[in-house]
Amino acid sequence: MTPLRWSSRLSRRELLQRGARVAGAGLLAPLWPTIAATGEIGRAYPDELLSIEAYTKGRIKTGDFITADNVEHVKDLLEPAKYHHVARMGRRLKVVPTTTDWMKLGPWEYLEATLRHQGQARFDDQGNVVTADGQPWIGGHPFPGSGDALELFAGLTLSWGRHDANLFAIRESNVAAGGNVDYRYDLVWAELSPVGRLVLEPRPYWTKHADKLRFNTVVYTAPESERGASYLNIWPYDQNEFPELYGYVPHFRRVRQFPTNQRFEPLVAGSALYLSDAWAAGDPLHTWGNYKVIGRQPLLAGVSGGWHPEHENWEHPVQGGPKNESFFDSVVEMVPETIICEAEPTGFTRAPVSKKRVWFDARNWMPVAMVTYDRQGLEFRSFDGCYSLYEKDGQRFMNGAHPYWSWAYVHAYEFQTGRITRLEQVRELSGGHKTSVNDESIYDKYLTHVALQRLGRV
Amino acid sequence: MNDFHVRQHLLKSGALAVGLGLSVPASAGLFEDMDVSFGGFVRAEMAARTTALENPNNQGGNYFNDRSVGRTAFVPPALLPVVGGSDGLLQVLVPGTELGEWGSVVLPLFGDNIRRGDEIVSVDNDFNYTVLRAEGEVGIRFSSELRLIARVRAVYDPTFYDEWDARSVEQFNNGIEGGEDFDERLYTRSPNYFDYIVAGGNTPNPLEWTGRDYQVYFPALVLEYNTGDFNFRIGNQQIAWGQSIFFRVFDLPNGLDLRRHSILDRALEEFSDKRVPMLSARLSYQMTDNILLDSYVGKFQPTVLGNPNTPYNIIPVQFTVQDRYEQGGYDDELVYGLRLKADYGQWGWQAAASRRYGPEGVYRWTKSGVNKQLTGPLGSLVNVLYAAKVPAGDGGFCNGGAFDATLCRRYADSGEALANSPFEASPGGVYSADEWFRYAAEVRLDGITGLNASITDFDGSQDVYATPVENARQAAAQLNTFFIAANDSLRGHIEREYFQENVFALGVSYVNESDNDFLNQLIFNIEAQYTPERTFTNITLGQEYIRQDEYTVSLVIDKWHRFFAEFPGTYIVFQALTKNRSDLVGRHLSGYGGKPLNELEPTATRATTGKNDNANYVVFGFLQPFPNKIWEIEFATLFDPEGGIFAQPGVRWNPGKGVTVEGFYNYINGELWGNPNDNLLSTLDFAEEFTLRLTYQF
User: How large is the angle between the packed helices B433-442 and B472-485, nearest 10 degrees?
Assistant: First the structure.
């Protein structure tokens, strides 16, 4: 057992209250300078914020499961949906050790660039993130260590997956309130950044597309009713503008341009996911507003250990809910500090949500949970997932010289209907769609009009 | 979709390589990325009729089945020089009588009252359409560049219909015959729902197997190769172009298959299962990041229409159609085209050119080839008179340039003469002048000039004393006389041909951005098509087709708009289209405005008024998903400002587990105002129905 440091002088209530008040992160030492100097997180926080055992005074230990029987001990460490899932719906959360090696909290190249480029970012007159000389951002997080909500969302919007290019092969299952999986989909999510590039040549800009932020395609490959439906979003760099949206609708057998400003619509039947939900920042930055930090807190969240190579296609076992298939087998670790931010959809008339609340991990500024609220202010939908280094028990999925880092699974939950959408990143989907990273060929394969035409139903 | 990855399992054992007849070792690098996927669905579809009006284009729904119509026979003007003339017998008996036109001299004793239903049984159906459909698609991916896609569609119709069977008229004048190019499967039995049979008896759609009640074919069987910016597909395939929905301005490559449910499926599905697949090669090339080039070359396949007496048939069954697709050599013809599409932020443009054969085809009178004499009292009289004529070629005055059809004959008897005319003396044809004019108007032809074309273009018609007329009264007199002489009715024979055309199209799009929420993200598209010297069916069905330049312009505006916080956004589309020469289905506008005989002035020299302006159409549609898209309601309407509307409200339910239930109602009214024959929709007035579809996908 790790010797406790400092914590005996603080009660849990004091710890949470202090965490909520202290800006700048880190309780023992300022977080970002500590990370920048050592790459270690442990020196910035007391044991109570790094160890579930310390926090619960031994009632729950690393390796234990959080269930309805013991969830009250960690109720303050769970956002409302996850607490509800455990307390009321039979979900179990396995506790894994807290990640203290900062370089395991993101892609190596991204984190390295964050260190290298710190201090060079600013907002221009249009509110876009630029370098000191006004050029598009050059890669890594632009505002490391920030405690500002707009800067946190700006960094997230600039790079969703934190790689230059991602191809996610995804299995989606939609679970009704009664626990039945009533809709299943296979889909491919492709994203590629023409700016802020750290691996793909040319760097940092693909010059002819330096006016764009990203290319993003979602294409459904199964079932038959949706197969070949695809949507290509081309994001301008200017975060005051909506993306261009082109779609291949199977019934039309061709690529058409579609209006893009309605982003709170499920793409397929039974789904609880909207385009707006992507990465908790699915819309251009300035189509939302009133960004603000409302607090800080430690949180139990999925930050590591989500990859499941035991299944040849990385698919996860399921558990919980009325039919025992509402949730993936879930792991959580003590995230010593999250920054709770809120934003409002100021650019969307009659949006079904009045605001979103996002918990950013103060260590790497990635979202670890999101809850949206309806127009009456009631909890509407929630999102929790798990990131992972794709390295486990001697098995690895590589990104160049380093193990791949990415998300592994996500739950989207509708408070008011009980419907759950489960997404998991898998190795491969039928049709030869394979998860890949920083593969420049995904542009030709997924992110052009001719690609949409090819992917569409013949 | 039940997907199964065979790469690891089958390739390791070599089973797939053997199964595919491949000699490549299982571990060969070429196929190491091999992947097989399969998916499909089964669907029950039915459309229940909501109107008492049967399809009037079919025997069982003919307007005149229940009507008794008086017919009067007249002495043909061609005979009047014999019995009449300035010195003839009638002039002596009735001085001053105008004897040189049809309707002048009644043939007493031969007139009658005809009720079509005395020969033709009417039908009464509850359903227009009941089919079981299964579709499956197999994708075999050999490598990241190469894959084979095979999509098969099978449709079975249990034919739970009250059908009209042509064998029911066999006792009348030996029933319906057809000539050497005639196919019994289409005209002498119960309806054939799926065979597409052209003159000569072949079924020319490749990779299609059909029978009376089933259809199996490959909408897609393509080998695809892609590398970088190139994508190449070769095989049987459909190609769709353009931003307009339903309006085919850029959608040039394929004809439409109007068997099955015609154009009456969900409007927002557009022509997804309607385009006739074509053996073709398609090359798509992303020239730049903004410009896409798309091109094709293929074997010409025409539009396929519903067969005679099938529920959505649009060609009156009084006609026998001889489709010259093979005999004319059109089945060997190539069509090809090119499209460039570019997108620059808010703006986009596209341009296309195609050299093709008009897939709808054009029609004209053709020799019936049916050697069947006129019959009955009047027919026998005509036969006697005909036999009394001097055969041509016997020397004397019947040789040479000044052939006199009154005194000379070219053929052995009236049967041979009719075989060389576009008519056949058989039941199931036109029984009265009233029927002739009513149907001519409904299919946008001219009943007067059409009659003349059937005479002047065919010496067989002239040989049996038919002569051109000047007005409606004369036309009616001649028509009724010949219908009586046929002792029943006359069936008309027309042929379908195809003509090459060059089609050019241009389009521009603009995405509007505005602070006004409703105006924001409105997408405007204008598409224009120009075809010089397009060939149209002559409204006379004469041998000379109409050739004119045609343009088509469409405006499309669509957007998503959120009306309610509780519901997802509504997809809204508005479209307008104008055409200067033909209507939406290719009928020349000069054939519009036709009237039934009783509404025509007896002295009218034309039975149609034609359209003075363009044909214009307006479409409005929306799709409103409910939360989670489990329910969706939709609405689409096609409006013809001349007095017709087609409205389709519908609902779609996705309960999950692969099940989808869809219901939609087709409301069609072609009589909102004015002459119904001035608008497009009156043609489909009979097809009001409610459609239910139950799908299970696997």
Answer: 120
Nearest Cα of chain B lies from the Cα of A402 at a distance, in angstroms, of 25
HSE-up of residue A358 (Cα within 13 Å, Cβ side): 26
Residue B358 to residues A124, B303, B305, Cα–Cα distance (Å) = 57, 9, 14
Structure tokens at B487: 């002792």
* Residue contact A259–B343, C-beta within 8 A: no
Sign, CA dihedral A20-A22-A26-A31, equals positive
Residue A180 CB coordination number (10 Å): 16
Chain B residues with CB under 8 Å of A241 CB are 513
Tell me how far CA of residue B259 lies from CA of B275, B348, B392, B583, in angstroms. 11, 36, 46, 20
Please tell me the least confidently modeled range out of A377-391, A431-445, B219-233, B394-408: B394-408
Q: Which domains does chain B have, with CATH numbers?
A: 43-60+124-366+496-697 (2.40.160.10)
Which pTM does this prediction carry? Answer: 0.88
Say which DSSP state B8 is in.
Answer: I
Measure the CA–CA gap between B106 and B87, rounded to whole angstroms.
Answer: 19
Q: Give pLDDT, residue B81.
A: 62
Q: Which of A23-27, A284-288, B289-293 has the lowest mean pLDDT?
A: A23-27
> Cβ of A444 and B569 within 8 Å?
no
The pLDDT tens digits for B614-665 are 999 999 999 999 988 899 999 999 999 999 999 999 999 999 999 999 999 9
Quote the CA–CA distance of B16 and A271 in Å, as a whole number. Answer: 37
A chain contacts of residue B656, beta-carbon cutoff 8 Å:
174, 176, 180, 182-183, 269-270
Please calculate the CA angle B402-B408-B410 and round it to the nearest 5 degrees. Answer: 95
Dmax over Cα atoms in chain B, in whole Å? 103
Give the SS3 label for residue B130: strand
Provide ipTM, 2 decimals. Answer: 0.84
Closest-CA distance of chain A to residue B147, Å: 9
The answer to whether residues B368 and B424 touch, using CB atoms and an 8 Å cutoff, is yes
Cis peptide before A202 (omega within 30 of 0): yes
Residues of B in contact with A450 (CB under 8 A): 229-231, 284-286, 292
The pLDDT tens digits for A178-220 are 999 999 999 999 999 999 999 999 999 999 999 999 999 999 9
Beta carbons within 10 angstroms of residue B576's beta carbon: 16
DSSP letter string, A72-111: GGGGGGS-HHHHHHHHHH---EEE-PPP-BGGGSS-HHHH
